[in-house]
Design brief:
Number of domains: 1
Structural class: mainly beta
Shape: globular
Largest sheet: 6 strands, antiparallel
Distance between the termini: 35 Å
Helix content: under 10%
Strand content: over 45%
Radius of gyration: 19 Å
């Protein structure tokens, strides 16, 4: 069993492992949207006004409020693990803000790339995909979005750690956040699957362990199951080395498992 050490600030990256560290910064200027209900968010501010048109509304899965000056609703974002419905706010001043609700785990930002038999270590967020869909409908050039968590104004960084198992295996990584960092929330998006329909069924069991305790287990045949949860702050503290282990057992050579760990914190 290979062990992967991920210790701030030194980072070691191995095959089937991905990492994305993103600064969090508040938007500048007036932003009239329901920030009190928002959690982790991605936003862009265009140089040109945005027209609230019927074509733009078609980019939304559901529309909660619309006027001549703004629109807010949900946008469907699909990846091989499932579907996510980020909220998106657009107004005529040029703002596009995609956000998860404050009560939703930040790990829902993970946009799983590849497919069930060939997952990749590429990291992209569901919020970015939601903005892309809206920008395309509005016929706007896309710029790189900025990120911010409205729940934690002092947070200045988001870290996404990704570990995937493209076959039966066990992998372990170690994560330590130094004592001069402030951790606001940590959550995970964990999945396992197996789709084998030749000759017999495909059976699998995937487990996720934190510091020697199993925190999630999914299993089945010819299906995919996932778990998205916050980790209690008492179970993931700064200045402690945490062990995260993922394992996949299966009786057919198909399927995969993966975990994305998302930390929102403040660095000095």
């Amino acid at each position: 069993m290979k062990r992967l050490f991920v210790v701030f600030v030194g980072l070691v990256i191995a095959l089937n492992y991905g990492l994305s560290q993103t600064p969090l910064k508040p938007p500048e200027g007036a932003l009239a949207f329901p920030s009190e209900s928002a959690g982790i968010s991605a936003y862009v501010k265009t140089d040109k006004p945005i027209r609230i048109t019927e074509a733009l509304t078609k980019a939304f899965y559901s529309v909660q409020d619309v006027s001549d000056s703004h629109i807010i609703g949900t946008v469907e974002v699909e990846h091989f693990v499932g579907k996510v419905y980020p909220h998106v706010y657009v107004d005529i001043a040029g703002w596009i803000v995609a956000f998860l609700l404050a009560a939703e785990p930040a790990a829902l930002v993970m946009h799983w790339s590849g497919d069930t038999n060939n997952p990749t270590a590429a990291i992209k967020t569901t919020l970015e995909v939601a903005i892309e869909k809206v920008a395309e409908a509005a016929r706007l050039p896309l710029t790189q979005p900025s990120f911010y968590d409205f729940r934690f104004p002092e947070a200045n960084s988001m870290l996404v750690l990704l570990r995937i198992l493209p076959g039966a295996d066990t992998k372990t990584m170690y994560v330590k956040l130094p004592e001069n960092h402030v951790l606001y929330t940590v959550s995970y998006y964990f999945y396992g699957c197996n789709f084998c329909r030749l000759y017999d069924y495909g059976w699998y069991a995937a487990e996720l362990w934190l510091d020697g305790a199993m925190i999630s287990r999914v299993e089945g045949q010819d299906n995919l199951k996932s778990v998205v949860k916050d980790i209690p702050s008492r179970d993931f503290q700064v200045d402690q080395l945490h062990e995260l282990k993922i394992s996949l057992k299966q009786n057919r050579e198909c399927g995969s498992a993966g975990v994305a760990l998302v930390l929102i914190y403040r660095a000095p």
